Amino acid sequence: xxxxxxxxxxxxxxxxxxxxxxxxxxxxxxxxxxxxxxxxxxxxxxxxxxxxxxxxxxxxxxxxxxxxxxxxxxxxxxxxxxxxxxxxxxxxxxxxxxxxxxxxxxxxxxxxxxxxxxxxxxxxx
Length: 125
Prior knowledge:
This protein is an alpha/beta fold. The protein contains two helices and eight strands, in the order H-H-E-E-E-E-E-E-E-E. The protein is about 30% helix and about 30% strand. The strands form two sheets. A four-stranded mixed β-sheet has the order 2-1-4-6, with no helix packed on it. Strands 3-8-7-5 form a four-stranded mixed β-sheet, with no helix packed on it. The chain starts with a helix and ends with a strand. Mean pLDDT is about 85; it is low at about 40.
């Protein structure tokens, strides 16, 4: 990004002020798109968020050996419990997180033990 900034600075010094404005207007959306792409690429993968009594994404497919992270963004505690007891989190307060690495293939149905209507599924292939 620094190289792009230096190039643009050098390119705009060659132009009159009117041309520099035109160049900035044309290149502005390109720079914005690059910044937006970087922000999207920086987001974590394999994260399930808990908010408004819902697991989002309710179903997630991952490869064997993948670590999935649950983050509670709700204002009350929640848990993450596998129906077959493969994993179980402690009560997660607001912004607390729990991670589990899936070492074997299978389907893992989970729920919140404090609010059993909250359910989700991890499919490991």
